[in-house]
Amino acid sequence: MFHPLLMPTYGIAIALYTSYMRIFGDRLLGIIVTGVLLTTCVLPSLGIYILYKTGHISDVRLHNRTERTVPYIINFVCYVACYLYLYRFGIPSWILSFIAAALISLILALFINRYWKISAHMIAAGSMVTLVFLMSFYGLMLKPYILPLQLITLLLAGAIGSSRILLNRHTLGQVGAGFSLGVLCCVSMFYIFA
């Protein structure tokens, strides 16, 4: 439910449905969110499944960090497609910055994973928390959503990080580094784009 491939869809849905973008109506916003789901979750998942079935990776969950390179490249290409898709819709730059942050974090995670395993779940969680707080601080989020979404994203990030540690998928350092990288990329891209 909180897989890194789903987080861009959640983030774009939050950005569209809790901001002034709501004026464009549910039908158009639903089309945009569906396109994001297809390009950042369905297509990368299909790519990973094909890699698994053809024997290029041993596990669809990508537990072996040395097998993450090709799936990360597939994700990168799909995220570029998502960025172009949103750009063609005329989506504001502050929302595009969220996808740009995902692209930058993918590149950095790909490099880091060659030497050390970093938590992709926490990169996504850090980006999500940062998106919500940036929207709140800059008046981009409608007031009724601010406090509930801040609390929910913080609690979910804590739960995701705790689960990664309890399941022995990552160490505390890998979880903390992933969250920090997500925050750093999201803040950087927000200020560059906005």
TrEMBL record:
It comes from the Bacteria. Keywords: Membrane, Transmembrane, Transmembrane helix. The chain crosses the membrane at residues 28-52, 72-88, 94-112, 119-139, 145-167, 174-193. This is Phosphatidic acid phosphatase type 2/haloperoxidase domain-containing protein. It comes from Barnesiella viscericola DSM 18177.
